[in-house]
Amino acid sequence: MDQWATVLFTDESRFSLNTDSRRTFIWREPGNRYLPSNVREIYHYGGGGLMVWAGIMLDGRTPLHVFEGGTVTGVRCRDEILEPYVRLFRSAVGPEFILMDDNAGPHRALLVDEFLESEDIRQMDWPARFPDHNPIEKVGDALGRAIATLSENYPGNENSVAEQVGPIATGNDKLPYFKYEVTLQGLYI
């Protein structure tokens, strides 16, 4: 297990806040078709969503970063993830620190590579589109289920769900982000 103690496993996840399966049936009396009680707003193209980033290590975790909308680019990756979070973990761990990401486009941007090189942050070689063995994927699945439950309580209201997810970022959460230790303990390569 010591060989994994210096690796920060990271990932972004987008969670849809609209879980409408379009299989809702409404039974109503004739002539009541468009009464407000019989109409429900739906969101096309996935509706609202929440994009988050997180990192886990054997003995720690990053705060959960909630992106404020828009696409994650190389600039946002550097400015919102690498500078405030990864740089601090690299400083705490020392020169043995290794960053593991999922090879997504923003992580391969030239300005990201230049930043990592300037900060002496090594990256783990990881096959593209091969997330199944990244332990943080299990954390993402658990978060997704918890966020889906929250979005059922606040349908169509992205801000309310983001407010409910907010405590994760401060560590005052009840969501399964704290259960990452179990995931990492099973990591043997």
UniProtKB/TrEMBL annotation:
<dbReference type="Pfam" id="PF13358">
    <property type="entry name" value="DDE_3"/>
</dbReference>
<dbReference type="GO" id="GO:0003676">
    <property type="term" value="F:nucleic acid binding"/>
</dbReference>
<dbReference type="InterPro" id="IPR038717">
    <property type="entry name" value="Tc1-like_DDE_dom"/>
</dbReference>
<dbReference type="InterPro" id="IPR036397">
    <property type="entry name" value="RNaseH_sf"/>
</dbReference>
<protein>
    <recommendedName>
        <fullName>Tc1-like transposase DDE domain-containing protein</fullName>
    </recommendedName>
</protein>
<feature type="domain" description="Tc1-like transposase DDE">
    <location>
        <begin position="7"/>
        <end position="145"/>
    </location>
</feature>
